Amino acid sequence: MLNIPVPMRDGVNLSADIWLPPSSQGNGPWPALLLRTIYDNQEARYIGWAREFTNRGYAVIMQDCR
């Protein structure tokens, strides 16, 4: 999992966690899902979703909203 700050045009950085499929799925490119939440993106349910989708060959980007 990578944590990337994504700059908005007003200078605020929103945190985005990027989950990639395991190396057994190849080197990409992969289809991607963007999930945005006003809640803590480190909640167990979101991590579970990311793992499930990456195991199915998707890249997952979870981004905090304002």
Automatic annotation (TrEMBL):
InterPro entries: AB_hydrolase_fold, Xaa-Pro-like_dom. Residues 10-66 form the Xaa-Pro dipeptidyl-peptidase-like domain. SUPFAM superfamilies: alpha/beta-Hydrolases. Gene3D superfamilies: alpha/beta hydrolase. One of its GO terms (molecular function) is hydrolase activity. Pfam families: Peptidase_S15 (PF02129). This is Xaa-Pro dipeptidyl-peptidase-like domain-containing protein.
